[in-house]
């Protein structure tokens, strides 16, 4: 650039150098913030997954007694367990055993 004095050219090169350094710094900060946000999002996703497992495990534990009690709450006349003296304790025992087995399985698989 023949019409621009040498000291102005040196100043403009210095300004361009500062601009380039600032641009690289901004790009580095942008990548750093993006990485932090991605890590935070991944951590939140893992926590939500663990919460959903616990909720599903509790639903599984509640589903078994609900189903059994729902069947026996229909007031059928011809169910063998209704005339048997130990029918009620037997059903309660079955519900307890099944719920215990489900609880142990969920505990072993770290869902609870």
UniProtKB/TrEMBL annotation:
One of its GO terms (cellular component) is plasma membrane. Its main location: membrane. Keywords: Cell membrane, Ion transport, Magnesium, Membrane, Transmembrane, Transmembrane helix, Transport. It is found in: Cell membrane. Signal peptide: none annotated. The chain crosses the membrane at residues 55-74, 86-106. It catalyses: Mg(2+)(in) = Mg(2+)(out). It comes from the Bacteria. InterPro entries: CorA_cytoplasmic_dom, CorA_TM1_TM2, MgTranspt_CorA/ZnTranspt_ZntB. Gene3D superfamilies: Magnesium transport protein CorA, transmembrane region (1.20.58.340). The keyword Ion transport applies. It is a multi-pass membrane protein. Pfam families: CorA (PF01544). Belongs to the CorA metal ion transporter (MIT) (TC 1.A.35) family. Mediates influx of magnesium ions. Alternates between open and closed states. Activated by low cytoplasmic Mg(2+) levels. Inactive when cytoplasmic Mg(2+) levels are high. This is Mg2+ and Co2+ transporter CorA. It comes from Streptomyces collinus.
């Amino acid at each position: 650039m023949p019409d621009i004095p040498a000291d102005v050219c040196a100043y403009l090169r210095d300004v361009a150098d500062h601009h380039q350094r600032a641009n690289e710094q901004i790009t580095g900060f942008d990548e750093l913030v993006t990485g932090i946000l991605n890590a935070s999002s991944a951590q939140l996703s893992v926590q939500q997954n663990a919460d959903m497992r616990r909720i599903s495990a509790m639903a599984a534990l509640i589903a078994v007694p609900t189903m059994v009690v729902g069947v026996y709450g229909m007031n059928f006349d011809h169910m063998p367990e209704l005339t048997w003296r130990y029918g009620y304790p037997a059903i309660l025992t079955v519900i307890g055993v099944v719920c215990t087995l489900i609880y142990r399985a969920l505990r072993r698989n770290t869902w609870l």
